[in-house]
TrEMBL record, chains A, B:
<dbReference type="InterPro" id="IPR040727">
    <property type="entry name" value="NAPRTase_N"/>
</dbReference>
<keyword id="KW-0328">Glycosyltransferase</keyword>
<keyword id="KW-0808">Transferase</keyword>
<dbReference type="InterPro" id="IPR013785">
    <property type="entry name" value="Aldolase_TIM"/>
</dbReference>
<dbReference type="Pfam" id="PF17767">
    <property type="entry name" value="NAPRTase_N"/>
</dbReference>
<comment type="pathway">
    <text>Cofactor biosynthesis; NAD(+) biosynthesis; nicotinate D-ribonucleotide from nicotinate: step 1/1.</text>
</comment>
<dbReference type="GO" id="GO:0016757">
    <property type="term" value="F:glycosyltransferase activity"/>
</dbReference>
<comment type="similarity">
    <text>Belongs to the NAPRTase family.</text>
</comment>
<dbReference type="GO" id="GO:0004516">
    <property type="term" value="F:nicotinate phosphoribosyltransferase activity"/>
</dbReference>
<keyword id="KW-0436">Ligase</keyword>
<dbReference type="InterPro" id="IPR006405">
    <property type="entry name" value="Nic_PRibTrfase_pncB"/>
</dbReference>
<comment type="function">
    <text>Catalyzes the first step in the biosynthesis of NAD from nicotinic acid, the ATP-dependent synthesis of beta-nicotinate D-ribonucleotide from nicotinate and 5-phospho-D-ribose 1-phosphate.</text>
</comment>
<dbReference type="GO" id="GO:0034355">
    <property type="term" value="P:NAD+ biosynthetic process via the salvage pathway"/>
</dbReference>
<protein>
    <recommendedName>
        <fullName>Nicotinate phosphoribosyltransferase</fullName>
        <ecNumber>6.3.4.21</ecNumber>
    </recommendedName>
</protein>
<keyword id="KW-0597">Phosphoprotein</keyword>
<keyword id="KW-0662">Pyridine nucleotide biosynthesis</keyword>
<dbReference type="InterPro" id="IPR036068">
    <property type="entry name" value="Nicotinate_pribotase-like_C"/>
</dbReference>
Amino acid sequence: MTERAASSALLTDRYELTMLDAALLAGTHDRECVFEAFTRRLPAGRRYGVLAGTGRLLELIEQFRFQDAELQFLRDNRVVRDETIDWLADYRFSGTIRGYREGELFFPGSPFFIVDAPFAEGVILETLLLSVFNYDSAVASAAARMVAAAGGRPLAEMGSRRANERSAVAAARAAFIAGFSATSNLEAGRTWGVPTMGTAAHAFTLLHDSEEDAFRAQVNALGPGTTLLVDTFDVEKAIETAVKVAGPELGAVRLDSGDLPKLVKQVREQLDSLGAAKTRITVTNDLDEFTIAALAASPVDSYGVGTSVVTGSGHPASGMVYKLVAHRSGDGGEWISVAKKSDGKASIGGRKHPIRRLDARGTAVAEVVHIVEKGDTPDDSGRDLLVPLITDGEVHREHLGVEGTRRARDHRALAMAELPDEAFRLGRGDPVLPTIFG
Amino acid sequence: MTERAASSALLTDRYELTMLDAALLAGTHDRECVFEAFTRRLPAGRRYGVLAGTGRLLELIEQFRFQDAELQFLRDNRVVRDETIDWLADYRFSGTIRGYREGELFFPGSPFFIVDAPFAEGVILETLLLSVFNYDSAVASAAARMVAAAGGRPLAEMGSRRANERSAVAAARAAFIAGFSATSNLEAGRTWGVPTMGTAAHAFTLLHDSEEDAFRAQVNALGPGTTLLVDTFDVEKAIETAVKVAGPELGAVRLDSGDLPKLVKQVREQLDSLGAAKTRITVTNDLDEFTIAALAASPVDSYGVGTSVVTGSGHPASGMVYKLVAHRSGDGGEWISVAKKSDGKASIGGRKHPIRRLDARGTAVAEVVHIVEKGDTPDDSGRDLLVPLITDGEVHREHLGVEGTRRARDHRALAMAELPDEAFRLGRGDPVLPTIFG
């Protein structure tokens, strides 16, 4: 049993089903439609976003079936009419979805998930897909900035305790896609193949009669290559004890408190003076992209990041939305572009096809969003951002599971390498690529 | 199949299991211990916090079993030694937990969840329990401020799409405990008995050939008492159409954009002039406790809140920690209080018992945390905050499920009623009760 649950069908806002109910009665439920997911804007000051969640979502769409228990709940609570219950009992997504590869970078207005389906089939996926993309991408977008700030030093995600217990698994996966090396979360190891890490907390030291007893117990079980936590009482004494117990082959020491730039320097000097020149230093004290950057000149070997990465470093939800942009007319004839005009929330109607425009050196210069007819591919020499995700109801398996997660991580690295240098400055700025509707 | 999954055992940081591994080898794993969960501080400016998560957590602790699949993962990945695998195969929490009732208010330093168990049994629950409390309480704490700001008008939680798909269910439950009336999330309805609501989105209007067709389709399916969304194109025209289609018995109109104080006033006047004086107005445009408060003088009938409630309104994780505070000595003799001294993160050792002190009128004046011996109850006439949650491994069932959720909601109302008035001002301030170690 992995963390995947049996049915995802009620992870849904009630209004998706009442809309279905009304459309069924009106006979408009099977109008062919195009829905697009995109973000209206990046969080203030952010230069790019990292899309994560696709692999998880495609699995959840496969599990999006209304079984007896779900149907009974809807019947008991009179959420929809009996006719609609019958329709839901047979529901299985039969449409086609194209979108960005997972790990792709996203910019305002550019659709990363394009659903071609009858209204009824497309509309009821809205809540679930936004839940997945909004959270996973918030984590991946923050994590990518931390990876850039760490300048090649490895980062571990350790924020499970600061996120809902299931979010924690998704967060570990999203951070890995964004370039983190490992996670503390065991379920993320099992379900998504993310490497796991971790050795001991302060409680372990406090349990024992002395810090030396605790270190000895840990080294006996985990070997001298383990990481000893050295800030329970007095860091200097702890390091002396640590090297005494584990020898100079001690793997690493972990610092979870204090004035890190100063402390790290002292610890490095002390370790070197004790002959433990290869013992690494890992720091884990409430880090974010800014404190990581501030440690660039310090002899830190790796970082552990908790709260800030699992909560999107100030932006815990990406602003992604899912909009109906076109449908066929009632007689099944021509396509009609649609868009709401709501104050401050107007959108652009019509089927779209996004392309990343690159210059001669392969550096990205713009996000170009073409308005297209069904079946047409824009005449544009840039990198085509759309790949098939689901075709006529069949999920493309390469996006799923451990393999899909690893492919997303690799793709993120490729897409990041296309960005101009200014994308990686932590200072606030506009999206590093303009979105052009072509 | 509800949203509860089969095993929660890998929703855990790896270091919980490596500590267990080392303690087993050292023979220190069965030392009797006391662990306490508390928050070091409230988010800046907040006056109180609302504890949520207990009922969910107790179920997850019951499901915290290492079955073949979990053990195989640990073996394959050499997370712990074979002896430890055997110990985990038999694991079932056998200790005793006392704590706050769910829905209780919390203040810095006061323990709300006190675990009496052998080290091994208590330590491996850490990650899971912090995940649950940190997220659920972040939502409940934000939600309670919104409830106060709404001054008796009902609030619906509609943020599922802005939270991880499973967080969304927990968020709906936490907001309900904090006083929200309903949620859009169907799984929260099924699993936790939270009333669900919702009618239609802009896509439904855009699907149809005219707004009038859309309104008619909705009224045909859901009746004239439904809520019509009136801001897809032009609000004034939409309201005219809405009343024409549904008649003056139209249940409500929903506004999801625009300058709400001004717009709500116009809409009320228009509805009244059309004879729809009983038609309610619900607003849902990116609300938080501050924008809700700003609508106090407007003729709004109810609020729908999304992003801000499910992300804790700027504070998506409560700062809760779980600390070893005492253990018996190696020979099973006396109790030893323990606390780390880490820079900026020092804690207070010893078993604690929190009491809410009330004045003669029943208004809370202080959180008093007594340091006590095992089995002792403090001599204090205040309200005892501790109730049994698990006794010798047996969960007290009244905290679970739909009933537990409703009890938590009721208890939250009682606890809030004890607070002094200044607790409910939205301006920033210190915790409204001081924590006194007695």
